[in-house]
Write a sequence for this structure.
């Protein structure tokens, strides 16, 4: 599996084979564009899968699990690097873990307000809904901390963003399409002017 930085570096080297310090596009801007384009391509793939297959799953390499504390029926998720561009809160895959003694059911703020206490769920089930950088548990939790499974932004512990090779190929092509018209001319006069010949 490739990583986003290496793909961005390859595309940068193709567009700017002999870079100067006065290129039309900074390397940092190029990598930032790569990150945005990566998120867009994941969003697009999920949409296309939904159309083709009638359902969509978050790619397993994007899923992370972490245990977080719940205080006053609120779980603070501000420390998580979540891929929020995924529609319908699908970034939030699970709370509580598999086979836990309490089943947690994802809801929304509006549904929680509509149903109030009349959700017809068994006593060992509780609802939750995301709101900003926290998750609300209207009926509390059975224990703390709780496991959360979510779609991450692809970042590993070392800061590298591992991406699927197919998405990587699309990403490299898109970077070249985006910046292809801004290819710098080599500075053969060695005067830091990328437009000189």
């Amino acid at each position: 599996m490739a990583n986003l930085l290496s793909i961005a570096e390859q595309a940068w080297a193709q567009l700017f084979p002999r870079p100067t310090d006065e290129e039309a596009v900074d390397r940092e801007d190029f990598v930032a564009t790569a990150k945005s384009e990566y998120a867009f391509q994941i969003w697009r793939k999920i949409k296309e899968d939904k159309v083709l297959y009638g359902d969509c799953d978050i790619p397993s390499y994007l899923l992370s699990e972490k245990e977080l504390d719940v205080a006053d029926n609120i779980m603070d998720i501000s420390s998580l690097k979540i891929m929020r561009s995924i529609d319908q809160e699908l970034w939030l895959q699970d709370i509580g873990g598999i086979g836990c003694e309490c089943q947690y059911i994802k809801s929304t703020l509006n549904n929680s307000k509509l149903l109030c206490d009349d959700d017809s769920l068994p006593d060992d089930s509780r609802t939750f809904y995301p709101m900003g950088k926290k998750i609300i548990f209207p009926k509390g939790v059975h224990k703390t901390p709780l496991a959360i499974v979510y779609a991450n932004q692809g970042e590993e512990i070392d800061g590298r963003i591992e991406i699927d090779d197919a998405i990587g190929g699309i990403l490299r092509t898109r970077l070249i399409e985006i910046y292809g018209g801004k290819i710098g001319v080599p500075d053969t006069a060695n005067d830091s002017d990328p437009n000189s010949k």
Observations:
- DSSP finds four helices and ten strands in the chain.
- The first helix runs from residue 4 to 15.
- The chain has a mean pLDDT of 79.
- The first strand starts at residue 2 and ends at 3.
